[in-house]
Design a protein that fits this description.
Rossmann fold; five-stranded mixed beta sheet; elongated; eight-stranded mixed beta sheet; 420 residues; BirA Bifunctional Protein, domain 2; alpha+beta; 2 domains
Length: 420
């Protein structure tokens, strides 16, 4: 049906635009305060970028990507997440040659995942993300978490918690993989089919499985935190010190691994703790090996992504209404065909002075124009036409007090601007 949006997509209607715009303005302001600048990457990339970057054992790559061949027989994929494209832009444009760190954010970047549409997650949704390249200090993750909490706090969201974990690095993770595989091997037949397939290639994925039987099994699994190398342990301890110093409460959750293969050391989530307990609003972490994996120089990096639709859903759940845009200040009504040009010019003159102004575009009667001005919550209505127009004046009515006055037409824009 041509008049119905594809499943898993949703329109952002004019009546909802102020919600998105308010969220965007808060994101931009907080990102700028932390020294991040905007990047815009293509909606689609070469499929290989995600196979190598995101990981071919992830749900995203195995089940959720929109992949197709273009007319040049190249495999192209609609962007399923934001980080890989940001890394590609960092490499292609040789931003690693500039002074580091390179701090960038993307805003309302469309993301496409073929999965069952659910609350706060659509097949096309929009992400805000921040990525920092070149910073190896745990202060990077602390800064990201702080900025994210500031954004959500500015929007009025409450009942949020921070969960953190360390999943180690290539030096210490092999030991954990061996211990995890040994633990799971005794329960191998009880794992879901996908986890059995991933067992040899990436046993960490079992920790991220949402199948109830697998979730129950991994409750007793060994913890990566017990096997961290000295460097990873020091990094994780320092992150905790920074969060504590800032007064940010957090919980250590050894089962957080995130759904992407590129993470190293820190992973974190922002969770809703009341009303919709267990809902992850945001996830992120450190990915020190990704730039090198995609062909660049060894570059430490960290970032996060959060869905705008999920923020909007949680705002609604918490009964938070963002400010409506300012109502129409002046409605210019015309009393007939002969007044159309004068009404149009007055409307344009007021807008040039920065005054939100509307005029009749539908050929309404004068009575209907008054009703429409009331619907717009206009402060004033300027009547153009009739005897007043022949005398070179307009009638201005205050719609709150019903007081009327006559103003010379050639002075109307300045006089009305003075009143406002």
């Amino acid at each position: 049906m041509l008049t119905q949006a594809p499943k898993g997509t949703r329109d952002m209607l004019p009546q909802q635009a102020h919600i998105w715009q308010t969220i965007e303005s808060v994101m931009r302001r907080r990102a700028a305060l932390a020294g991040y600048r905007e990047v815009r990457t293509p909606v689609f990339e070469h499929t290989e970028l995600f196979l190598r970057g995101v990981g071919d054992t992830t749900d995203i790559v195995q089940k959720e990507m929109y992949t197709f061949k273009d007319k040049g027989d190249r495999s192209i994929t609609l962007k399923p997440e934001g980080t890989a494209g940001a890394v590609r832009a960092f490499l292609e444009n040789k931003l690693f040659a500039d002074a580091l760190p390179c701090k960038m954010y993307y805003l309302n970047s469309p993301v496409f995942r073929y999965e069952k549409p659910q609350a706060g997650r659509l097949r096309e949704h929009h992400q805000f993300g921040m990525e920092c390249f070149g910073g190896k200090s745990p202060a990077v993750e602390a800064e990201l978490i702080s900025t994210l909490l500031d954004i959500l706090g500015d929007l009025g969201l409450k009942g949020l918690s921070v969960s953190i974990n360390s999943i180690g690095c290539p030096n210490c993770r092999p030991r954990y993989h061996a211990a995890l595989k040994e633990f799971l091997s005794g329960r191998f037949n009880d794992l879901c089919e996908e986890c059995r397939e991933r067992f040899d290639r990436n046993p960490l994925r079992v920790l991220d499985c949402k199948v109830p039987t697998c979730k129950e099994i991994v409750k007793e699994a060994p913890s990566m935190l017990d096997m961290l190398c000295d460097d990873c342990r020091a990094h994780f301890d320092q992150l905790q010190e920074l969060l504590t110093a800032k007064g940010i409460p957090y919980t250590i959750d050894s089962h957080i691994v995130r759904g992407l293969d590129y993470y190293t050391k820190t992973v974190f989530e922002i969770m809703v703790t009341r009303g919709r307990e267990g809902l992850a609003l945001c996830g992120g972490g450190r990915y020190d090996g990704l730039v090198e994996e995609l062909g660049g120089p060894a570059t430490p990096a960290a970032g996060f992504g959060i869905g705008t639709e999920r923020i909007i859903m949680e705002l609604a759940n918490q009964g938070i209404e963002l400010p409506e845009p300012a109502p129409c200040a002046v409605y210019v009504a015309n009393l007939g065909e002969e007044a159309r040009t004068a009404a149009y010019l007055l409307c344009q003159g007021l807008r040039e002075k920065g005054i939100q102004t509307e005029q009749d575009l539908c050929g309404r009667s004068l009575k209907a124009q008054f009703k429409y001005a009331d619907k717009l919550n206009a402060k004033y209505i300027a009547l153009v036409g009739g005897d007043e127009l022949s005398r070179g004046v307009i009638k201005l009515r205050d719609l709150a007090t019903r007081e009327e006055s006559e103003i010379p037409l050639d002075e109307a824009a300045d006089r009305i601007a003075g009143l406002l």
